[in-house]
Automatic annotation (TrEMBL):
Belongs to the FAD-binding oxidoreductase/transferase type 4 family. Its cofactor is FAD. SUPFAM superfamilies: FAD-binding/transporter-associated domain-like, FAD-linked oxidases, C-terminal domain. This is FAD-binding oxidoreductase. The keyword Protein biosynthesis does not apply. One of its GO terms (biological process) is respiratory electron transport chain. Keywords: FAD, Flavoprotein. Gene3D superfamilies: 3.30.465.10, 3.30.70.2190, 3.30.70.2740, Uridine Diphospho-n-acetylenolpyruvylglucosamine Reductase, domain 2, Vanillyl-alcohol Oxidase, Chain A, domain 4. Residues 39-220 form the FAD-binding PCMH-type domain. PANTHER family: BLL6224 PROTEIN, D-2-HYDROXYGLUTARATE DEHYDROGENASE, MITOCHONDRIAL.
Amino acid sequence: MTVSVQTAAEALTELVGAANCTVAAQDKRPYLTDYRGIFHGEAMVVVTPVSTQQVGDVVSWCYRHDVPVVPQGGNTSLMGGAVPDDTGTAVVISLRKLNRVLSVDVVNDTMTVQAGVTLAAAREAAENAQRLFPLRIGSEGSCQIGGNVSTNAGGTAVLRYGNMRDLVLGIEVVLPDGRIYSSLKGLRKDNTGYDLKQLFIGAEGTLGIVTAVVLKLAPQPRATAAAFIAVKNPHAAVALLQAAKIGSGNAVSAFELVSAPALELVLDYLGDAKSPLQHAHEWMVLMELTSGGTDEALHAALLDILELGFAEGLIEDAAIAASLADIQAFWRIREDISDAQTRAGGSIKCDVSVPISRIADFIDAASAEVLALDPEIRLVIYGHLGDGNVHFNPLRPRDQQAAEFLARHYRVVSETVDGLAHREHGSISAEHGIGVVKRDDLRKYKSEVELQLMWQVKRALDPKNLLNPGRVLPEPDDPCAIH
Ligand code: 2HG
Ligand code: ZN
């Protein structure tokens, strides 16, 4: 069944009201490209429902008329998972108007929020209740909780608090046919069969549209200490991580690796920031400790860890934050590396994870292979060493144009880096998801049985393949093998 734009617009306007439905090109534009401006698509209609029921009504109408649906949050994905394709046949459903914090239960340490609440607003609501919502990613001002859930967002606090998957206790989802599955429970124990909510977390909107969740909160730490540390190499960083976990009584809340080219790039981008360290070093770590104890005790623990690191030859230099402003300055440097790469153009992003015990060897091997292609490639390597995930993002040589670099090296670099991670029993997408960028690579890195199971789940929930089609799941080699 083919539906005209006019028919769709009239029907959907009826369901959500004229203020929440648009076909005008200039109004649709922000929903048709991602925030970096890399992916572009088209859509018949963009709707911004104001209630879960409206989302259900729109999806139900689309299901009955065979219209594809693309759910969208803050549009900060790096994988093109929330931008429609260029056929112009889809309806984009933006969740941004479902932006209410529904309740906070301080005794249960939970908070119920709608999908369109930004991560920053969710963190603020928790803070207002003297609690911590621990998910921490650089795009918190724009990204939305629904997107965080749908991509199982990770970030810098995973080593302490887990991924989004670990922070969701209850969920409300609009299913591909428009039915509403509501289980907004704040339970830490519930063994009543399949844990259905997990199906929708990390599914990138291919199985249902997340409209609300119950999130787990943590006590706010009372003390924070941080240091920007020059380490000898990634092996030394891993050894320091072990020492820090033990020496601090498990108080490490972040352990972020930064390579010299990454630091150089971000300082250049920020303009007004300077390196916390006096001299240049090949490798650095931003380590943060938090605890429920006193600042004095935590600083003493930090000093002990650094002393041990120096004594064992792991550390070359360290800058200890003397104030909250110092801590914020360290984080600004770390969190803006990604934007600095976007501005520089010509990066090959590899978001890989391997067991922490293998990560230093992985970085050595991948670096050697990439530099063998061209020693002028800048090895912008950074990220969440504390949980085994690094952003291994080679950047074009200074005198090479982005397009030329990508044409020459994109394929070989991603295949090499992903292949090495895979061989180390790692993942080719640790936290950014699959979207369209990595979809076809799954064929290579997932077993046949895994792919069959993924398609079986997809078909069971979305038999018409209308929810975010063409995302996450590669077309099966043999469609008949999947029923
Ligand atoms: C980060 O850790 C983000 O800064 C973005 O995951 C990483 O842009 C990237 O590759
Ligand atoms: Zn990251």
